[in-house]
UniProtKB/TrEMBL annotation:
Residues of the Sulfotransferase domain: 17-225
Keyword check for Protease: no
InterPro entries recorded: NST/OST, P-loop_NTPase, Sulfotransferase_dom
Keywords: Glycoprotein, Transferase
Glycoprotein is among the record's keywords: yes
Naturally occurring in which organism (per UniProt): Wenzhouxiangella sediminis
Pfam families from the UniProt entry: Sulfotransfer_1
UniProt-recorded name of the protein: Sulfotransferase
Classification lineage: Bacteria, Pseudomonadati, Pseudomonadota, Gammaproteobacteria, Chromatiales
GO MF annotation list: sulfotransferase activity
Amino acid sequence: MTGDPDEMTEPVDRQLPNFFLVGAPKCGTTSLASWLNEHSAVFMCKPKEPFFFSRDIQSPRAAESWSDYRRLFKGAQPGHLAIGEASTTYLRSQVAVPAILERVPSARFVVCVRNPVEMVSSVHGQLIRSGREDVYDLRKAWNLQGARRAGQALPPLTTEVGDLLYGEVCALGTQLKRLLKYVDRAQVLVLFLDDLRQKPDRVWSTLTSFLGIPHDGRQTFSKKNERRIPRSMRLTRFVALAHRTKNWLMPRRTLGIGPWLREALVRAPSESEFCIPDDLRRELRLFFEPEITMLEDLTDKNLSSWRRNDK
């Protein structure tokens, strides 16, 4: 409970979310949320990630109170059969799923997963891009986890140390197992990024069926939030700091150049920049072997391809 005075008297209405795309980050959630947002029977709240229920993870929440959170969905109409949000911190959070079920016991959960070895590299790249990671070398960043857990060697713009603990962020087996402790398996759909890339039409059919919405005949599946790296770390940190302080330094209504500027500061990585060195790949694969085995057991899917050292 949040302690709102209207908490016990405010009636439950149909405009509460009935599904949650809970993560994991860098596993295709942005693409899925974008496709869902274009479906006439789906209402996705804005912002896509309100982070309301993951109170144990420091994030820029779009709503602090339950009544404010409800207002994010006030635009839902009778024709919207699926009403949702896509906060990717919820899968990793220790408290989000129980808190969701307290409010919406029949909620459905969509979980996206991928090879954790590749996920480490992708998450690291995203943190670099956003200015929350200042160690460009993946091996060095991986080896700094112990120090950072102890509060050392933290980037100036980091507000959540847990974001830099790559082994925990990418522990997808552990996270899915925890979710299934609270949620009936029939209320959970697990999707794999490999399938999203190779068979998006099948994934879309599975997802629409799970959410109880009609298939819209979609044939085009654009990719969102593809990997980018900064052209300049100094400029990236400056823009990230400006974005964080915009409520104090900038008027609420701007010219809308922020997204354009952030995109102009990044570029697609070269093959060598994207590649994980073989020895580090082996180290990561051994580290995540228990997580991969757990995912196989939980999803009944053969993930032997993830155990190869090549990409």
